[in-house]
Amino acid sequence: MTDTVSGPDVRTILDARGYRAALEWIARRAEAFVIPLAALVAGMVLFSLFILAVGKSPAQLYETMWRGGFGSWFSIQNSLSRGAPLLLAALCVALPARLGLVVIGGEGAIVLGGVAAAAIGVALNGAPSFLVILLMGVGGAAAGGIWIGVVGALRHYRAVNETISSLLMAYIAIALMNHLVEGPLRDPASLNKPSTQPLADLYRVGNIPGMEVHWGLVVGILACALSWLLIEKTRWGFSISSQ
Known about the structure:
The chain is an all-alpha fold.
């Protein structure tokens, strides 16, 4: 008579695999939040050490920053308005990162995009508002995209590190903006503070109804959502992510 050795129950194996798969799924989803949160906390702690080194209170500083950014409805709206272009600049970092590139010079793209949009608005003064706003948006995006495209070209053709080149080119963009605003694009009426000629109200995107926040916030959110769909839900996005 021989004894039979029974293996593990099939249901037990499936349950174990399902449990492991669930843990892996949770870990992947949590990684997107835990890593940025840990980086933020580490940055705040390190910055607090510098504040303590100069004899100031980090708690008081962070309280002031919180009140300035979120302490009132006015502060919240102001933060949203200022954060709208940063959403587009963030895509300048996030999209190349999917290819393994670290581009941190988005400020240069913002600066030159703004200069290009202002120049188009001034040059087309008197044209239909819809056409001018459309061309300002396209021109600003093209100027910023070309500027960052130079960084990509330097990496591709000359093997120049994109992190360093994008950062240094941001300073060049700022210097170019100062030259244009203080020179060819300067409003003769701006004596003490150089600026371009003011744009008429009909050439501005306007505010979201009931808020003092311009429609650029909606554009930025839509751009981020469309970029996510392009990268995560299309064959092309999968192909560049797997490179």
